[in-house]
Write a structure and sequence with these properties.
With 250 residues, the chain is α/β, with parallel strands linked by helices. The chain has nine helices and seven strands, in the order H-H-E-H-E-H-E-E-H-E-H-H-H-E-H-E.
Length: 250
Amino acid sequence: MQTDRQLVDLQETLYTSRNPTRRWLHCTRRDWIVSRIQSLPGTMHKALEVGPGAGGYLPILAEVAQELVAADIEDAYLGQARAIAQTIPGLSCVKDDITATTLEPGSFDLVLCTEVIEHIASSQAALCGLEKLLKPGGTLILSTPQRYSPLELCAKIAFLPGIIQLVRLVYREPIIETGHINLLTESVLKEQLDEAGLHIQAQFKSGFYLPLVAELPGDTGLRLLQWCEKKLQGSRLSWLLWTQYYILTK
C-alpha cells in the first residue's frame, strides 16, 4: 500500500530524476502542456485541474485564470494542493470524482486533465464528466499514455516480484507502481472523445523508451532515444511513443 508521502514523492521525483531519460520523458510532457496553457489568449475567468498530482501545473494555471479549482479523489494530492493554495490567491481544492462530478456544469473556460484517465476504469465516464464541466467554446487539455508504447509494456514487467528491487537499485529513487488500469490506443481514445462530444483542435505525441538504452548509457542513450522520437513522430509507428496529447473543445 502506497503512503501519501510516497505518492507525492514520486510525482516530484519524475522531473528531477538522476536518470536522463526518465527526466526527459516527464519534462517533455510538462513543457508541452505548459506551453499550451501559456499560449491561450487572454485571461480566463475560471480554470480546473482534474488530478493535480504534486501540483506542478497549478501556478501556471493561476497565471491565466482569475479562479482556479484543483479536484481529486486522492487525499494525498488534495493535501499537496491545499499547501500550494496558501501561496496562490483564488485557488480552491475540492474532493470530486470526475466520473460522477458534482461540480457546476459548464462553468470552466479551461480544464486540464493530464495523466489521469489511465487510472480510471471508465475513461468514457471521465471524458463525459470533463465535457460536462467545460463551457461552450472552452478548452480541454488532455494527455494519457499510449497502450502499446514500450514504456508501458516494460512497466508491466518491471513491477514483477524480484524485478522491481533491481529497478529500484538501478534508479536509486522512488519507484512505485503506476496504477495504470486503463491504457488506451489512439483509435479507442478518439472514439471515446467523439462519444463524449469533444472535438480535437490539435494533437501531439512524444517520448520514446527502450529498456537498457534508457538505463545504462546515460546521456548517450538519451540522445539515441531523442533521435528515434523524431523519426517516429508523424509516422505509422507513432504508437510506439509514450504519451498522446490533445487540445479539445466542446
